[in-house]
């Protein structure tokens, strides 16, 4: 892939994952701990969990934070593969 | 070594101890955050041990500041760690990219229509990319284009927000508005999300 194509590919993926209603990065921070605790306990995802997963698909910085918090708290999030 | 074992504390005990400014509980929180940061960020070349100590110290203050916003559905330590990671990564991102001199090649990738030849090479996928370029050129405001280009260029949101003199939340909203416009632009031309996904996966 050329650099041009890489940028367009990246943008197309972001556009594809875009939802009409999205939580922002502050809202992500408000619910990420609840989300990780639910994942750790194997509980069903709530609407807020779904909104968080959508957010990290369009926000690389919050995805980076989610991975770091999970690592710090030893929460196995491999079950989320393909979803985030 | 702190007199309080972090793993022994319940959410309520953390809250009570911190509200009372119990020195042992404050110490246990700092230690706990420090260990978490070492485990999650310690492998990064740009995050030295002294940095992580400083971040942990500052994170304790942030936690104290935000105690009233803690919601009991989360484990207290996970909530505190989330604040600590946000604080630490924001500092590292700021440090990594102090100015927002955008990579001209990203802007060119997104707006230059000479990519028409690529469309011929890559068929439907190339056509979709050309349409996306058109969308960036025609459907977005100058500010939306600027934010999208910066994001693809890897400019941290916090750095871009400071440069544009708006909040990071405002940057996110601009990006979201831009993505929604591009999604509608593609959809109007017959490229819904499923079609875009299929084209992206078909290499
Ligand atoms: Zn975010």
% residues in beta strands of chain A:
under 5%
Main sheet: strands, sense, barrel of chain B: none
- Helix-strand makeup class of chain B: mainly alpha
**Which CATH architecture of the largest domain in chain B would you pick?**
Orthogonal Bundle
Structural class of chain A: mainly alpha
State mean pLDDT of chain A (0 to 100 scale).
93
Helix content of chain A: 55-70%
- What is the overall number of helices of chain A? 4
Terminal-residue CA separation of chain B:
56 Å
Number of helices of chain B: 10
Spans where pLDDT lies below 50 across 5 or more residues of chain A: none
Q: For this structure, what is the CATH class of the largest domain in chain B? A: Mainly Alpha
Question: How do the strands and helices of this protein lay out in sequence?
Answer:
The complex is a heterodimer of chains A (84) and B (203).
Chain A lengths: L2 H15 L7 H16 L6 H12 L1 H13 L12
Chain B lengths: L10 H9 L3 H19 L7 H18 L9 H21 L7 H8 L4 H23 L3 H11 L4 H8 L3 H21 L4 H9 L2
Helix pairs in contact in B: 2-3, 2-4, 3-4, 6-9, 7-9, 8-9
The structure holds zinc ion (ZN).
């Amino acid at each position: 892939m050329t650099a041009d194509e890489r940028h367009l590919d990246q943008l197309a993926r972001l556009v594809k994952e875009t939802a009409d209603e999205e939580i922002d990065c502050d809202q992500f921070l408000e619910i990420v701990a609840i989300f990780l605790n639910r994942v750790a306990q194997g509980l069903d995802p709530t609407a807020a969990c779904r909104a968080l997963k959508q957010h990290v698909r369009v926000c690389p910085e919050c995805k980076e934070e989610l991975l770091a918090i999970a690592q710090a708290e030893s929460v196995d999030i491999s079950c989320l593969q393909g979803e985030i | 070594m702190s007199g309080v074992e972090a793993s022994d504390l319940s959410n309520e005990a953390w809250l009570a101890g911190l509200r009372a400014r119990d020195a042992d509980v404050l110490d246990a929180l700092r230690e706990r955050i420090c260990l978490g940061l070492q485990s999650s960020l310690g492998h990064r070349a740009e995050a030295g041990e002294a940095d992580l100590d400083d971040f942990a110290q500052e994170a304790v203050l942030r936690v104290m500041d935000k105690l009233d916003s803690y919601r009991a559905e989360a484990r207290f330590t996970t909530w505190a760690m989330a604040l600590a990671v946000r604080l630490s990564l924001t500092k590292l991102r700021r440090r990594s990219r102090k100015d927002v001199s955008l990579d001209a090649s990203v802007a060119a990738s997104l707006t230059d229509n000479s990519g028409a030849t690529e469309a011929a090479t890559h068929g439907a996928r190339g056509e979709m990319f050309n349409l996306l370029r058109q969308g960036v050129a025609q459907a977005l405001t100058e500010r939306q284009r600027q934010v999208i280009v910066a994001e693809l260029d890897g400019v941290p949101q916090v750095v871009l927000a400071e440069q544009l003199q708006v909040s990071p939340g405002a940057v996110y909203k601009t990006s979201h508005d831009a993505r929604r416009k591009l999604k509608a632009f593609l959809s109007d031309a017959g490229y819904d999300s499923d079609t875009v996904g299929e084209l992206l996966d078909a290499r």
